[in-house]
Amino acid sequence: MYGSENNREDSEPTAFRRAEKNYKLYYDNNNAPSKKKKNKQPIPVDLTEVLDFRSILECHHRNSELPNGVIVLQDKFSSPVFNLQNRPGFYFIPGALSIEKQCDLIKESLTDFPQPPNRTNHNAIYGPIQDLFVAANEGKVLVEEKSLVTSNEPNTDLSCRDGEKWKFTTEKEASLRKCRSVSGSSLLRKLRWSTLGLQFDWSNRNYNVSLQHNKIPEALCELAKQLAKPAMPAGVEFHPEAAIVNYFASGDTLGGHLDDMEADWSKPIVSLSLGCKAIFLLGGKSREDAPLAMFLRSGDVVLMAGEARECFHGVPRIFADKENAEIDHLETQLTHEDDICFLKYIQTSRININIRQVF
Ligand SMILES: O=C(O)CCC(=O)C(=O)O
Ligand SMILES: [Fe+2]
């Protein structure tokens, strides 16, 4: 999973790599007087070849002809489900998640899902971090705890007490201590993934069943079971055992990869999109196969099962600008003062939750 193309791209980029480069965000700051980011302009990209399932859904509702190679799966689900003729096992359900569900999942992805024992990309450096989102919004700073000597506990190595070496504290407190520190807001910006259920071990590229974990939350489990139905044989239930939550900021990409660490590839990966619009590339079984590009918007759901599990895929682009993010419905919904922090985050971010049956 998430393998890169090593050094091959320098000599002979594959068709998949060429497409990634084609859609990736590049800035043109030749004309800018200063090299500051706000003066940089994104280089425009030709999006005419990008498959747009929102307009395909409109075609379907109008009873107009669908684009070549796109099939609608009849009567399998409450909303229309589309397949691609030349990619068996790939399912696209545009706007499958209600606005309320999208907001709930965005909130959970930022608060509950990254909580220990679930792990995040920050674990390797800082160990388990509690309440990252709250701390970031309160302007807290993460400090190395062994330097946090309080007047009550002189010379106590607190890091030994509970196995956590880093703790959030106020900016003022942090500035009084000569210790390593990092702001919560910077950690939130750099949050790239969290893992739910059975924990994926990125260094060994496998699930580590001996790592402490909680079951996938009931509501997410039920949702995944419902959404998986179009890709499941009648009467067979999908068993969600693990999920990866990906967090994308502007300019972030997910390189072409296969998800091949699950035992039974006939079972789908259920993949939910939240927040800013993205481009998804669906390749073939070889990186040399030219991938198909499609938009993923907040609320869209993709299923990959069977042969589609053998297809390279990735996300070369997210659109974090107001014009192209297409999150007006979230802006209308997240207006309560308690929701502003979530809105601020999602206005420039995308979250993907992908749910898997491991065994
Ligand atoms: O972000 C996406 O839509 C795809 C995520 C993905 O492919 C993965 O996590 O394996
Ligand atoms: Fe994937």
UniProtKB/TrEMBL annotation:
Belongs to the alkB family. The gene is 11438953. Keywords: Dioxygenase, Iron, Lyase, Metal-binding, Methyltransferase, Oxidoreductase, Transferase. Its cofactor is Fe(2+). One of its GO terms (cellular component) is cytoplasm. One of its GO terms (biological process) is oxidative RNA demethylation. GO terms for molecular function: broad specificity oxidative DNA demethylase activity; class I DNA-(apurinic or apyrimidinic site) endonuclease activity; ferrous iron binding; methyltransferase activity; oxidative RNA demethylase activity. InterPro entries: Alkb, AlkB-like, AlkB-like_sf, Oxoglu/Fe-dep_dioxygenase_dom. This is 2OG-Fe(II) oxygenase family protein. Binds 1 Fe(2+) ion per subunit. Residues 239-359 form the Fe2OG dioxygenase domain. PANTHER family: ALKYLATED DNA REPAIR PROTEIN ALKB-RELATED (PTHR16557), ALPHA-KETOGLUTARATE-DEPENDENT DIOXYGENASE ALKB (PTHR16557:SF11). Its EC number is 1.14.11.33, 4.2.99.18. Pfam families: 2OG-FeII_Oxy_2 (PF13532). Fe cation binds at H257, D259, H313. It comes from the Eukaryota. The keyword Lipoprotein does not apply. Transmembrane segments: none annotated.
